[in-house]
Specification:
The complex is a heterodimer of chains A (about 170) and B (about 280). Chain A contains 6 helices and no strands. Chain A has about 170 residues and is an all-alpha fold. Chain A has a single domain (about 1-25, about 40-165), classed as Orthogonal Bundle (Arp2/3 complex 21 kDa subunit ARPC3). The longest helix of chain A has about 30 residues, at about 135-165. Chain A starts with a helix and ends with a helix. In chain A, about 40% of the residues are buried. By secondary structure, chain B is an alpha+beta fold. Chain B folds into 3 domains: about 1-45, no CATH class; about 60-125; about 130-285, Rod shape-determining protein MreC, domain 1 (Thrombin, subunit H), CATH 2.40.10. Chain B has helices at about 1-15, 25-40, 50-65, 70-120; strands at about 135-145, 150-155, 165-170, 170-180, 185-190, 195-200, 205-210, 220, 235-240, 250-255, 260-265, 275-280. In chain B, the strands form 2 sheets. Chain B has a 6-stranded antiparallel β-barrel. Chains A and B meet through helix 3, helix 4, helix 5 and helix 6 of A and helix 1, helix 2, helix 3 and strand 1 of B.
Chain lengths: ~170, ~280
Amino acid sequence: MLYLRIIKEKIYTSLPIIFLYFFSFYHFQTPEVGKINIFAFNFQMILIYFYVLKFPENLGFGNIFLAGIINDAVIGITLGTTSLSYLTLSLFTTYIRNATLRSVMTAEWFTFVPALFFSNLVYLVIINNFSNVSFYYIELLQNTFFTFLFFPIFYYIFTQYQKLTSKD
Amino acid sequence: MSENRDDFIIAIRYALIKKGAKQTFSLFFLILLSILVISLDKFSLPFMSPLRASLNDFIYHVSVISSQPEKFGKFIILKTKKHYTIMDENKFLREEMEFLKKQKFNNAYLASENDILKNTLNLSDANTFEQDFSIFARVILDQKSPFLKSILINKGTKSGVTKGMSVFHKDYLTGTIVETNFLTSRVLLLTDLNSKLPVIIEGTDTNAILEGTGNKKNLRLSYLPENYKLEPDKIIFSSGKGGFFSQGIPIAKTYLDKNDEILIKLLGDPNQALIVNITNGAIKR
């Protein structure tokens, strides 16, 4: 029984990492509504921001780095680009975590904006200077906007999940 | 003021160097590692090519496995839809077959007449569609990212695929090979921003470059002559300039949209490609 409990706990705590890797390997395609793909958002960024901010012990920086490398290989851009972008997001998030005293969802939601900005800035700078690929600014902008917009939904889901697992 | 700056520097230093609970690596170390990886990949050192190819092969295959649940779901939906439409389609096809049977005799007569006329004018299309390499491949992943509109196929350098080869889907040009690994390759679709193809417009001797915009129903023609006006319902063929493709491959078509604007759409649908044909020329007819 003890073994089962340990395995169960391991699975619960590893689920964010499993999701991070899964969505790095698998890029889900969402239906478009008119010309705007409202469901196109960066799930990994929400996951990284939330867990580095609230439960850093559940998501290691090494895993974030590796997930970024996998993402680059799948998309076909210079290796290390997404890793650096995710790590910038983690750096910014760690800074926010150290600088804030009281956790409020709305405050964390709005600090997600500069975090996303710096992360995407690093992304664009590397793409512009270290590769020859052109990219779709509008799609990237949409993606970033909907990542920001969907944050509260995932904040709620992740918080409920963490509450559930801590009860167990 | 200086106290605030000191606090900020301390917080950043703390975030960079301090390893949190259960963290194996510090952020500083991983950021340096990322920069090193980017530099190694950018400057394409000799050992990076096989390393990247092996890494890509491994990651693509895991990626294919992870996309199976979605594929299965789509397969079920597709099968259900097909079930309801198959009867109508069958009826339509029977009627069409009858019609084509009648047309066949007419075509045979026209073809022989065409051959006779070509011989009389000393015209021959024997060298139009040259190819000495042709292989079929399965699409294992189609990636829609803000950076590349590309598909991954299950044939690589092991099967003789090289960069720059043409990829066809249902007789229509779909893209070109831009990355080859040992077991897999990446096809840059014609819809991608980075895709540029020398073309000629039907019924004219106007040359242009067909560029992708990310949308299969709105491609762009650049380097058109000044004051040139596109007409609807004109087929756009490859011109063969630059030696990448054979000439005369139908690629796209002009059409009038709802706002009476003349746009260009691809003849084939790269998003529907499951099996593609890779050649170093045009598709064999």
